[in-house]
Amino acid sequence: MNEPDASAEHELQQLRAALARSQQQVADMAAAQEEFLRAVSHDLRAPLRHVTSYGALVREVLGDLPPEVLQGAEVQEALGFLATMDQSARRMGLMIDGLQALVRASRAPLRLQPVPLADAIAHARTTLASAERGRTVEWRVGVDLPTLQADSTLLQELLVQLLGNALKFTRPVAQPCIAVLADAAPAGQVAFAVQDNGVGFDPARAGTLFGVFQRLHRETEFDGVGAGLALCRAIAQRHGAQISATAVPGGGCAVRVQWPVDAAAAGTVNVAANVNANAHQR
């Protein structure tokens, strides 16, 4: 074997070794995610159930006190503490649900198929019917929405989160309006935007919007734990898509999703990029 051939063989061996290391890193990350999901679904829920169950038992015990004692300042204060504890425990349960949804979205097999976006939006609106009940919401759904190469289940989760947020944050508005429109995109991409005329948010905080448990409004104003948009980002990344948001305080919000025409190829590139990034961070 001459020198160039030996050099090429050595380089090939190095590439194979690098690929093996990357594959092992992917396997390690998958195993860590499985362990995390197990801990979240069982180990963390067990003590949380104890908190909520024993809190209810304490309330029952206090309820058996004589009326004159039950109405005392100390007992009423204790009942207030129990109510706060119960509310926090239930909130923690919702946070665990959000973490589980994130892990499932990251690990679920990706079954790509053509999904007409208009049909997916109609399905998502049906799912959200209870959130719209009793309200008059103006919907503007574009007639030129694209067909996406997507996992239909994950796309439904993304749309339910986006449309659900639009419904939630337009509650204080007298005449709520939600629009889903096609948007311009570069070659090889399609895009759409979900726009509302709700309360909006401070654009200076847009960078944190898609983080886990990041909230831009007080809990007393709007429900939720801040996991929905993190789930949307995870689903978009699985498909090699990009998601961003812009808003004006009191002037509504627009969430833009840019989706690759060939989601399979883009998703593969995206996964490889994430693996390389994780490898460099170690």
Mean pLDDT value: 83
Sequence stretches where pLDDT stays below 50 over 5 or more residues: 269-282
Q: Which structural category fits the helices and strands?
A: alpha+beta
C-alpha termini separation:
37 Å
**Biggest sheet overview:** 5 strands, mixed
What series of H and E elements makes up the topology? HHHHEHHEEHEEHEEH
Q: What is the C-alpha radius of gyration, as a whole number of Å? A: 24 Å
Q: What's the CATH superfamily of the largest domain, by name?
A: Histidine kinase-like ATPase, C-terminal domain
In the sheet with the most strands, the strands line up as: 2-4-5-7-6
| CATH architect. name of the largest domain | 2-Layer Sandwich
Number of helical elements: 9
CATH class of the largest domain: Alpha Beta
Q: Helical amount among residues, as a percent range?
A: 55-70%
The number of domains is 2
CATH fold-level topology of the largest domain: Heat Shock Protein 90
- Per DSSP E runs of 2 or more residues, the count of β-strands stands at 7
Molecular shape: flat
Beta fraction of the residues?
15-25%
